[in-house]
């Protein structure tokens, strides 16, 4: 199990605290420092069953600078979104937990983190 976190994020800290409390084996990826490649983003999207616009933080300043809110949300635009997420990792929703069964969840709630733990 791996968790992508921003240590400054309270949801990330809560998710890590819950993983610790449950004695889970996991690795931490500080994705702002260890930026995911486009291939890694594609892989995590497949595991999440989501599209890149589903995990984009569209209220971030960089999103507004890029005009992300106006980008098409369709298959032809998928690679543009993935490139933006890789070039500006702050846009990636957090925390993302990759579960041992090959799936992934966005662990913003205790229920989501527990779901990842049960997989």
UniProtKB/TrEMBL annotation:
<keyword id="KW-0560">Oxidoreductase</keyword>
<comment type="similarity">
    <text>Belongs to the ArsC family.</text>
</comment>
<dbReference type="InterPro" id="IPR006659">
    <property type="entry name" value="Arsenate_reductase"/>
</dbReference>
<dbReference type="InterPro" id="IPR036249">
    <property type="entry name" value="Thioredoxin-like_sf"/>
</dbReference>
<dbReference type="Pfam" id="PF03960">
    <property type="entry name" value="ArsC"/>
</dbReference>
<dbReference type="InterPro" id="IPR006660">
    <property type="entry name" value="Arsenate_reductase-like"/>
</dbReference>
<protein>
    <submittedName>
        <fullName>Arsenate reductase family protein</fullName>
    </submittedName>
</protein>
